Amino acid sequence: MTDKNIRILIADDHPIVRAGFKQVLSETPDMVVADEAGNGQEVLAFLKKKKYDVVLLDISMPGKNGLEILKELKVNFPKLPVLILSIYPEEQYAIRALRAGASGYLTKASAPHELITAIRKISQGGRYISASLAEKLANYLDADMTKSPHEYLSDREHQVMLLLASGKTVSEIAESLNLSVKTISTYRSHILEKMKMKNNAEITLYAIQNKLME
């Protein structure tokens, strides 16, 4: 290995996903997966001990989600490039991620060559968004800037809203996010209040109508 290798920290709570990324990157001569993290605490622990050129960060992590971790990283390591990876459509989280300091955003459905291109670009100080996302962002900026109800939600409320819309119960969401049922119930109350809705069925209908779910 030479100093020219781009040292990468992969942060994803699914071992099979990490293995997939590792396989792709292992076939790229100028990149090396230095470490893997399964949650936010591991990410921060690694960064306190070692230096990396790029962090690949999954947006759906147990405990603190990717956006919360991203905000912490930008406070402690402001110059470290972070590429956000997500199963959600670009328009769901991309703007939030870029505002929070991400250097790029890719969906996990992206082709391997796009991942390689994105890593190279952000490691050199650039930003990476796909052509389709660039078009969506342009449309977003050109559109009426009146916010939709879901855009008033915090990042965590937005995440909980999508999980409620997918049919998950408060208990199931609490377990998947490693939070208490009481905390999720509080988020649900805030979501209903901010979006002026009465129940989960209205949240689901809204999410479908606004194409917030795949």
What does this structure look like?
The protein folds into two domains: 6-141, Response regulator (Rossmann fold, 3-Layer(aba) Sandwich); 149-209, Winged helix-like DNA-binding domain superfamily/Winged helix DNA-binding domain (Arc Repressor Mutant, subunit A). The chain contains ten helices and five strands, in the order βαβαβαβαβαααααα. The chain has helices at 15-26, 40-49, 66-76, 90-99, 112-123, 131-142, 155-165, 170-177, 181-194, 200-209; strands at 6-11, 31-37, 54-58, 82-86, 104-107. The chain has a five-stranded parallel β-sheet, with helices on both faces. The chain is globular and about 55 Å long. The mean pLDDT is 88.
Brief sketch in words of this structure:
By secondary structure, this protein is of the alpha/beta class. The chain contains 10 helices and 5 strands, in the order E-H-E-H-E-H-E-H-E-H-H-H-H-H-H.
Question: What is the first-to-last residue Cα distance?
Answer: 41 Å
Q: Mind telling me the CATH superfamily name of the largest domain? A: Response regulator
How large is the count of helical segments?
10
Kindly identify the CATH topology of the largest domain. Answer: Rossmann fold
Global geometry: globular
Beta-strand share of residues: 5-15%
- Calculate the mean pLDDT score and round it: 88
CATH top level of the largest domain is: Alpha Beta
Task: Evaluate the radius of gyration.
Answer: 18 Å
Q: What can be said about the biggest beta sheet?
A: 5 strands, parallel
Instruction: Output the strand order for the largest sheet.
Output: 2-1-3-4-5
Helix content: 40-55%
Number of domains: 2
User: What is the CATH architecture descriptor of the largest domain?
Assistant: 3-Layer(aba) Sandwich
Given helix and strand content, the structural type is alpha/beta
Low-confidence stretches: none
Find the count of extended strands (DSSP E, 2+ residues). 5
Order of helices and strands: EHEHEHEHEHHHHHH
